[in-house]
Amino acid sequence: MIQPPKHTPRWIVFLIDLMICLISITFSFFVRFEFTIPIEYKALFKSIIPLVLFIRAINFLSFRTYAGLIRYTSTKDAERIFIVVSISTLALFLINIINYFGIQRFFIPNSILLIDYFITTILLVGSRLFYKAVYYTIKNTDAEKENILIVGVEHFAAAVKRAIDKEALAGIKIIGFIDPFNQQGGNKIEDIEIHNTGKIEYLIQKFDVTRVIIAQKNLDPTRKNKIIERCLNLNVKVQTIPDPASWINGEFNVKQIKNINIEDLLERPPIVLDKKRIQEYIRGKVVLVTGAAGSIGSEMVRQITRFHPQKIILFDVAETPLYELELELRETLHFYEFETVIGSVTNSYRLNKLFEVLKPQVVFHAAAYKHVPMMENNPSEAVYNNIYGTKLIADTAVKFGVEKFVMISTDKAVNPTNVMGASKRIAEIYTQTLHRNTNTKFITTRFGNVLGSNGSVIPRFRKQIEHGGPITITHPDIIRYFMTIPEACQLVLEAGAMGTGGEIFIFDMGKPVKILDLAKKMIKLSGLTYGKDIQINFTGLRPGEKLYEELLNNKENTIPTYHPKIMIARVPEYNYNEVNAKINLLIETLPSHNNFKLVSIMKDIVPEYISRNSIFEDIDRQKKFASDEQQSKTA
User: Fold this and answer.
1) I need a labelling partner for 394 at 20 to 30 A (CA). Which of 127, 382, 424, 566 fits?
2) How far is it, in rounded angstroms, from Cα 346 to Cα 395?
3) Mean pLDDT in the chain?
């Protein structure tokens, strides 16, 4: 392959530009006089040329039009040339006017200047575009072609096409644009045809397309997912572009093209929030977020900043993530009204001092242990952190007259089969009973797995793929509900706004996702093949793990609200004194670290707690045996 020079020296570009100016002024004279220059203008012609070239040269040097790499000529370069030629032509017009007032005649006929102006501009821009086209042709000669499709028909799609052209990406050929709305098929963008979505498979197979770039903003998730699925089924890599707000100086660069990830496939239509209602209970208030350094807590903080609180208290035991959140608030979100407090929800003295000094009015309680197998092996810590910690901060909130206390729970609290889920259910029960005896409004929110959260399967699968596999899944039939972290936190804020106290709000988690299908899609998105490049191994259900989480939108067990994604769970009511006594017994048992005794008390508080795949199933069997014995005696 012929290798073009690295770049043309600047002095050569400068001389070529001056040569173009010489040709232009000469040709302008001939055009003006219909290719027969009168005798009286021939001497003038010889004196005009040095002046024109001198003025043009001064402007080229001042604006450095010769400095840019010609093969990267863009609209901005064309604008610069237009401005430089305009300024130098205006200078020549000015000289003409001065000359006219001095000797009563123009030094250069104005008609020649106008003709020269247009010819010079066209030749300077055209020469650069011609060189750019020749450069690309030489560069791509004999190169192995990669054919791509761009999904989109707006200026975002055109920006991707121009960025690819500008970078001279060797061997890349844009086969066409895909209109996701099937309205502009047959039209063209910069001489490249637009096709409707029905032609995707045909184009991919005919032209051996290896990559599809989605460059259509405001494309609804359902439509986008269908296009991605069709491409993935043909083993085509799918990429997308970032939000225009992150483009460098407002210009798109090919380095910003990024791979589609699994979160994009699980994306749902954006949630419509009642911002006015949320603002009413956040604006001007001191808001405490426990577990602020965690994936949910940190996103809660980000969301709350939008509603103008007086102050946000960031409370967590994790020092480094808390510091990173501090930096993000200052440097990225430019939010400064916050206080960072390191401490645990199980530290009574720390909580009392925090409430006494900072006086929070709204509390979002996100601090909790959430990892099912870890808590199954460490029940005392689940009780200490999730139950005792919640009781302690809830009691402190009542003591200091907090207006609203929003507890973030989990779908695993529904008919729990593990220690973690049961601990969260007990925490729910306690805060519910508090509501009827205090002025503080206690509100509980439940949702399932969140994408990208600490402990989520998606970051784990991503790491396993990066290391060449295998991906490990506990069971081929296991399914889960997923929601993005921002989506979950937005619904928490909305539920907090609508809650009047005592409710358990549950969120519409969408359709359940089979984890095996999720893993296969992630392999495809990585450009790899399941069974060939990456294997999947099944390790068996972990202690306390369910195959299927409970459906959270069962209409028989819920009451609808004004928000289509938020419902109120129908749950039994409990007596505060009875619940408080049993929780105190649980806490008093903690120092013994007698796991079976702790779990037995938990099962007494939550009768629907039936262990699965766990050593604590023995407790259920003993209770059933005792119940059967009692029934037989009664009979």
Assistant:
1) 566
2) 12
3) 80
Q: How many CB atoms lie within 10 A of CB 39?
A: 6
Q: What's the CA gap between 471 and 465, in Å, rounded? A: 7
Rg (C-alpha) for the chain, rounded Å, is 35
Residues written for the chain: 635
Residue 166 bears catalytic tag: no
How many degrees, rounded to 5, is the angle at CA 73 between CA 68 and CA 75? Answer: 115
Spatial contact of 226 and 236, defined as CB atoms under 8 Å apart: no
The amino acid present at 534, given as its one-letter code, is: I
In angstroms, rounded to a whole number, what is the distance separating the alpha carbons of residues 144 and 206? 16
The DSSP line for 523-566 is HHHTT--BTTTB-EEE--PPTT--SBPPPTT-GGGEEE-SSTTE
Contact between 403 and 440 under an 8 Å Cβ cutoff? The reply is: yes
Which residue do the tokens 């099937």 mark? 182
Task: Point out which residues pair with 362 in neighbouring strands.
Answer: 287, 404
Catalytic annotation, pick one of 412, 441, 521, 524? 412
Going 557 to 560 to 564 to 565, the CA torsion angle's sign is negative
Q: 4 near 135, Cβ under 8 Å?
A: yes
| pLDDT, tens only, 36-57 | 666 666 666 667 777 777 777 7
Q: How confident is the model at residue 389 (pLDDT cuts 50, 70, 90)?
A: very high
